[in-house]
Amino acid sequence: MRIETCWFCSSKIYPGHGIQFVRNDAKIFRFCRSKCHKNFKMKRNPRKDSTFEFERKRNRPERYDRSLAENTLKAIKTIDKVRAIRSESHIKNRMKGNKRREQARARKEVEQGIHLVKAPTAQTEDPSFTLPKIKIKTSQPQEENHAMEE
After folding, report:
1. What pLDDT score was predicted for residue 29?
2. Which of 37, 66, 91, 146 would you label with 136, given CA atoms 20 to 30 Å apart?
3. In the beta sheet, which residues pair with residue 19?
4. Distance CA 98, CA 101 (A)
5. What is the rounded distance in angstroms from the CA atom of residue 30 to the CA atom of residue 16?
6. pLDDT at residue 52, as a whole number
7. Backbone dihedral region of 105: left (phi > 0), alpha (psi from -120 to 50 degrees) or beta?
8. pTM of this structure
């Protein structure tokens, strides 16, 4: 049995009692009663701690140093340049062997579709458009099987 403490008023919370609130950043707030929960939602702090300083609205204008702003803008420009150079080099490294692959793919496509480009009679006349035929010698003479054709 675990006894928790209320986040708002620091009183004890026994098992089965109270309300549990989980914020978007997964921080868990436990409250002993609805009064503490409602005051938390209204951003009140009865303990007068500095815990709500980050949630307090600030309507006062902030003062900025001009040189700091200039240095920040210069840094942003240099960061953009570095990012562009890195992305270009990354793309260049990825595309190193791509030209060779594209040429091989184009050559294969032309060889397969040469009949679309050149007429079949021109292919027989010009041997540069056809692939060389390789003769393979076999050790056994081929026998004619006329029985299988019937």
Report:
1. 94
2. 146
3. 31
4. 5
5. 12
6. 45
7. alpha
8. 0.32
**Cβ(11)–Cβ(23) below 8 Å:** no
Beta strands in 23-123 (DSSP E): 28-31
DSSP output for 71-82: HHHHHHHHHHHH
Tokens of 7: 């986040």
In the chain, the amino acid numbered 81 is: K
Q: Which of 41, 11, 38 is nearest to 23 (CA)?
A: 41
E strands, the chain, in order? 4-5, 12-13, 19-22, 28-31
Q: Please, what are the averages of pLDDT over each run of 10 residues along the chain (150 residues)? A: 88 92 93 90 73 56 84 94 94 86 88 74 63 67 54
Task: Look at the chain and count its residues.
Answer: 150
Q: Say how far apart CA 98 and CA 89 lie, in whole Å.
A: 15
**Amino acid letter, 21:** F
Lookup: tokens for 36: 């503490």
Q: What is the pLDDT of residue 25?
A: 93
